[in-house]
Amino acid sequence: MSKTVEFFFDLGSPTAYLAYTQLPRICAETGSQLTYQPMLLGGIFKTTGNASPISIPAKGRYMLHDLARFARRYEVELEFNPHFPINTLLLMRAVTGVQMHLPERFVEFIDCLFRALWVEQRNLNDAVVITQVLERAGFDPQQVLDLSNDEEVKARLKDNTDLALKRGVFGAPSMFVGDELFFGQDRLDFVREALERH
Question: Which family is this protein grouped under (predicted)?
Answer without folding.
Answer: Belongs to the GST superfamily. NadH family.
